[in-house]
Amino acid sequence: MKRIVSSVAALALAVGLASAASAEPFNGPYVGVQAGWNQDKLGTPSTPLGNVAIDRSQDSFSGGVFAGYDYKVSPRFVIGAEAGVQFGNDDSVARDTGAALVTVDPKRSFDLTARAGYLVTDNTLLYARGGYTNARVRTSVEDAAGIRSASANRDGWLVGGGLEHAISDNVSARAEYRYSDLDEGNGKFDRHQALFGIAYRF
């Protein structure tokens, strides 16, 4: 009986120590969800249907998931990498030119970014982000000849920054602004986002 009690106590102590070691904020793997405001601003971007004159912007809701890994390089500095997928709602940008109705409809986007931050307190990280982003976009043109549609991937780059706070040992919340350039060197296709997220840290 003593042997069983001792084994249970040793196991409980080991689990406790492991949890304490892995519970340090901003050091290790995490997954999360995020949502917020999205604005796409288009000029005359190139598409599979040719250059389309939109010259409009559209505000919409965006939501998605992310996963990443943080590494504390010193007591105050953190670096990390993250991948995310975003989906928009009611985010089509359209213009009636008189001769045609042109619609650009972003379907989804994903990003691969690095971030670096400074711990202003033990539980609050101020950070900057930058990296690659890609958006799947469907373009439609309706004119006297009928309706033509085509989809394509747009490559771009992303920069941003935000503030993340550890609510508990395993949960953190963040607020972040992002700017994405999806021009591909032709026309204008800019994206602005203000996102709020919750992460679970392992």
From TrEMBL:
NCBIfam families for the chain: autotrans_barl
Coiled-coil positions: none
Protein family (similarity comment): Belongs to the Omp25/RopB family.
Subcellular location: Membrane
Keywords, in A-Z order: Membrane, Signal
Endpoints of the signal sequence: 1-20
UniProt main location, coarse: membrane
Domain Outer membrane protein beta-barrel: 9-202
GO-annotated cellular components: outer membrane
Protein name as catalogued: Outer membrane protein beta-barrel domain-containing protein
